[in-house]
């Protein structure tokens, strides 16, 4: 089963999610509509809303609230992108100008705030306190992850455990919430709900690990951003952390200086060290281990095509080149 098969399997559901997104993006303020629609229409894999759909389907949910919550998850994700690009001073995402490059930082921050607040309006419509709790906790944890990442920038002393903590907060938490929400809607048992949460957390961690690998190995036409963006921002991601650990003192010092200074001038020498220490292979192995944990967690789910799609989605997360 390919990612195209998964998309085809949930195409009708995702079409319903897109309709909710279009309706809920409405605002009487034209700039809000303009910026929101620009970032939503810029592409993206829509993995997080797909997780809500697949999780709910795995438990036989037949209502409509999963469309609303899938849109909520996408709005929260989009808000983080708007804010991230301002913090990182990014100019390119998904092969298009970022919203902040096009509309300015102020508009990006404020429209991100609109998407957050609209998300909470939509959560209330589901009228389920457990759903509210999961999404409120997730949003708060993501904000903590953003701050942790900011503190780690230009710091070459960040170790692997600290790095993993950041991505479990910043990236994986929303994957976890999306997976858990479908289980809640489907009246899963506590054990099944927790299994879906574990699946989402480890899937999200693997997804970010591969993103970090692609920053040193991807084709910018595939990834939609410039190679070396993380190093330019002084982000100590796993390939760099491992290369410093596995390389010579001289190689480690070269990477330390590149992290501290940021920018792109030292990218090629750093890339050479990453390749010489097989750091990308190590990061991919870590991602594969996360996926094995994720898929192992959902063995307790009843057999269904939705479950099979979840397993195949995990395979896509580590095999992708974009």
TrEMBL record:
The lineage of its organism: Bacteria, Pseudomonadati, Pseudomonadota, Betaproteobacteria, Nitrosomonadales. It comes from Nitrosomonas aestuarii. The keyword Magnesium applies. SUPFAM superfamilies: Terpenoid synthases (SSF48576). GO terms for biological process: isoprenoid biosynthetic process. Keywords: Magnesium, Metal-binding, Transferase. Its cofactor is Mg(2+). PANTHER family: ALL TRANS-POLYPRENYL-DIPHOSPHATE SYNTHASE PDSS1, GERANYLGERANYL PYROPHOSPHATE SYNTHASE. This is Octaprenyl diphosphate synthase. It catalyses: 5 isopentenyl diphosphate + (2E,6E)-farnesyl diphosphate = all-trans-octaprenyl diphosphate + 5 diphosphate. Its EC number is 2.5.1.90. Belongs to the FPP/GGPP synthase family. InterPro entries: Isoprenoid_synthase_dom_sf, Polyprenyl_synt, Polyprenyl_synt_CS. GO terms for molecular function: all-trans-octaprenyl-diphosphate synthase activity; metal ion binding. Supplies octaprenyl diphosphate, the precursor for the side chain of the isoprenoid quinones ubiquinone and menaquinone. Pfam families: polyprenyl_synt. NCBIfam families: PRK10888.1 (NF008140).
């Amino acid at each position: 089963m390919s990612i195209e098969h998964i998309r085809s399997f949930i195409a009708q559901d995702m079409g319903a999610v897109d309709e909710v997104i279009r309706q809920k993006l409405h605002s009487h303020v034209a700039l809000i509509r303009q910026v929101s629609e620009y970032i939503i229409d810029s592409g993206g894999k829509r993995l997080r809303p797909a997780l809500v759909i697949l999780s709910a389907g795995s438990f036989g949910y037949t209502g409509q609230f999963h469309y609303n919550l899938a849109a909520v998850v996408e709005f929260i994700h989009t808000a983080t992108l708007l804010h991230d690009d301002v913090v990182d001073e990014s100019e390119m995402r998904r092969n298009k100008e970022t919203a902040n490059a096009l509309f300015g930082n102020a508009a990006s921050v404020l429209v991100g705030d609109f998407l957050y607040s609209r998300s909470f309006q939509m959560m209330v419509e589901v009228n389920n306190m457990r759903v509210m709790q999961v999404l409120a906790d997730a949003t708060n944890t993501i904000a903590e992850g953003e701050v942790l990442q900011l503190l780690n920038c230009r710091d070459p002393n960040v170790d692997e455990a600290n790095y993993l903590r950041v991505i479990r907060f910043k990236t994986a938490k929303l994957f976890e919430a999306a997976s858990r929400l479908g289980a809640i809607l489907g009246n899963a048992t506590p054990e099944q709900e927790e299994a879906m949460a574990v699946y989402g957390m480890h899937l999200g961690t693997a997804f970010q690990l591969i993103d970090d690998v692609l920053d040193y190995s991807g084709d910018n036409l595939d990834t939609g951003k410039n190679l070396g963006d993380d190093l330019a921002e002084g982000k100590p991601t796993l390939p760099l952390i491992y290369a410093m650990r596995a390389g010579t003192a001289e190689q480690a010092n070269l990477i330390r200086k590149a992290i501290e200074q940021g920018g792109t001038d030292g990218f090629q020498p750093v890339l050479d060290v990453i390749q010489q220490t097989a750091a990308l292979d190590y990061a991919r192995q870590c991602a594969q281990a996360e996926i094995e944990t994720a898929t192992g967690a959902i063995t307790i789910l009843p057999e269904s095509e939705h479950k099979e799609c979840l397993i195949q989605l995990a395979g896509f997360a580590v095999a992708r080149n974009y």
